[in-house]
Amino acid sequence: MIRTVSIVPAILSNNKQEYRDQIERINSFTRRVQIDVTDGVFASSPTLDITSVWWPKNWQADLHLMVEQPSAYLDTVLKLSPSLCILHAEANENLLPVFDKLKAAGIRTGVALLPSTYPGNAKAYIDVVDHVLIFAGQLGVQGGQADMMQTEKIPLVRNMKPELEIGWDGGANISNIRALAHADLDVINVGSAIAMSQNPAATFQELVAEIDKNGVAL
To answer: What distance in Å separates the CA atoms of residue 8 and residue 74, rounded to the nearest whole number?
Structure first.
């Protein structure tokens, strides 16, 4: 039996109007969303500045910060009060004090692992967070191909901390969503497959239906 897997649309935009449009396109069928923010350094493609980020009050927002210095964003994150804040293990500072402040504010914490990062090297972070994001795409870009070899990290993370929520980010679509769902994930973030769809709601339901099919062909 596979775990209950959540399909979570991802928003990535560098334009206020486009950002609003993306929110309006998915608001009718989802309440949990991942919002991606970059600094133009850690991820070379800049997104909308975090001070311009917002979401509907009834959303469960996962804020994914692809930034070198997460502490510089902390005050704004605390004001936004997302359900979950995901920082990269590869950031250019010690994340433990940042995680402590997020937890003190009642915000769940997550750590993202780039494809080159071995989970064991991020154990100090994995030990204290609520969520690990297996990153398998290209930073700050939607529409890339999933590096399915990254699924090999999932059992390593699960063995470290079985109760963790484990997410996937990068290239998830109708062709691989079923394989990902059977890889012991809890959350699959979907970017371009939904964002670029002519009918996002229908695409979302197709992805959910694909996961729910009996049997599996891998």
So the answer is: 24
Q: Please give the helix or strand (H or E) that residue 123 lies within, else none.
A: helix 123-126
Q: pLDDT confidence of 52, banded at 50, 70, 90? A: very high
pTM of the entire structure? 0.94
Would you place residue 217 in the very low, low, confident or very high pLDDT band (cuts 50, 70, 90)? very low
What CATH number is associated with residue 76? Answer: 3.20.20.70
Residues 6+ apart with CB under 8 A from 168: 133, 134, 136, 150, 180, 183, 185, 187, 188, 189
Between CA 181 and CA 217 the distance in angstroms is 12
On the question of pLDDT at 69 being above 90, the answer is: yes
Contact 107, 85 (CB under 8 A): yes
Alpha helices by DSSP H, listed for 161-199, are 177-181, 192-195
- Residue 140 resides in a domain: yes
Q: What is the mean pLDDT of the chain?
A: 94
Helix intervals (H) in 142-199? 153-160, 177-181, 192-195
> Is residue 132 in some structural domain?
yes
Indicate whether 1 belongs to any domain: no
Range of the domain at 20: 6-211
Could you give the number of structural domains in the chain? Answer: 1
